[in-house]
Amino acid sequence: MLRIVIMVMVAVLGSGCAQMLTDVQQAAQTRLQQLLANKFVDKLTEGIDFVVGELAVEGGFLDDPLVRILLPPPLGLVIDVARDINADPQAALLETLMNRAAENAIPVAGPILKEVLVNTDTETLQELLNSPRTAASAYLEEKGGAVIREALLPGLARNLEANGAVELYGDLLSAHHEANVAATAVETAAGDVAVVDSVAPEQLSTYVAEQAMGGLFKKMAVKEMAIRDSLDRMVESPAVKLEIPLRTEFLAWHSAPANQAWLAGRPGRSL
Q1: pLDDT of residue 235
Q2: Model confidence over 7-55: pLDDT tens digits?
Q3: Within its chain, how far is the Cα of 247 from the centroid?
Q4: N or C: which end of the chain has fewer CB within 10 A?
């Protein structure tokens, strides 16, 4: 009978130790996820400053094919088909003025994006960490995109008016319209007319704001992927791989009742 009782006690103690080890391992993994989420937020905050800083310098938009703001339709479509913007100095100048205006206005986006991160709860940050590679950029755009667009508009409107871009765009738009009247008449007779929505001169600042915002989040997505790659390398590093099991074993040993009793009995020691 005593033998059976001892066997039962051993089984119960073994089961309890196994459960305790599982709990400690889960706690260690949870802690690692919390540390990674905090690191992710820190890196995203730095990334916002980096991306906005890159765009805010001269050439930040104009010289980067990923984010360069092209002429609005229908002018942009014509230039794209011709693929020779340099053949029209006025068109080239307009594109430069639009991109310069965006470079001057984009710094307002940084504080807005960082405010979104500050107001994001821990659970959402954990979900973003474990989501697809550009999920955080998409989240920032969802939460802050409209605010950024509205913040960009006043500065862009002043800048585009002051540097002559609005007037130049109106002149180019009128010239394009006149040049296409005859061609449109011929196409209408042939029954082959393509209707293209055009951006009016008074809508130029809105167009540039939309394009600048889109470019900002394209750059943020690229930066986010680089951040995730760096976190992956950190997690896969030998030091981290060794630290987690060691910490788990230490916590398991420290939590064992017998070891707690031994620690409590040592002079000058307290749990």
Answers
A1: 80
A2: 545 555 555 555 554 554 455 567 767 888 899 999 999 999 999 999 9
A3: 33
A4: N
- Per DSSP, the three-state class of 23 is helix
| Residues 9, 264: Cα–Cα separation, whole Å | 24
Structure pTM? 0.74
Nearest by Cα to 65 from 266, 202, 215, 252: 215
User: Does the structure show a pLDDT above 90 at 125?
Assistant: yes
Report pLDDT digits (tens) over 63-86: 999 999 999 988 877 655 444 556
- Whether the upstream peptide bond of residue 74 has omega within 30° of 0, thus cis, is yes
Helix (H) or strand (E) holding 227: helix 204-235
Residues 6+ apart with CB under 8 A from 215: 55, 61, 64, 66, 67, 68, 69, 102
Kindly state the helix (H) or strand (E) to which residue 262 belongs, with its residue range. Answer: helix 257-265
Count each helix (H run) and each strand (E run) in the chain, helices first: 10, 0
Structure tokens at 66: 């990923």
Mean pLDDT across the stretch 182-200?
54
Whose CA is closest to 199, among 80, 72, 26? Answer: 72
DSSP H or E segment with residue 179: helix 165-190
* Both tokens assigned to 160: 């585009």
Spell out the residues 6+ positions from residue 36 whose beta carbon is closer than 8 angstroms to its own.
129, 231, 235
What is the average per-residue pLDDT within 238-265?
Answer: 51
Angle at 188 between CA 186 and CA 191, to 5 degrees: 115
- Encode 65-95 in three state secondary structure: CCCCCCCCCCHHHHHHHHCCHHHCHHHHHHH
Q: What is the mean pLDDT of the chain?
A: 80
d(CA 205, CA 109) in angstroms, rounded, equals: 16
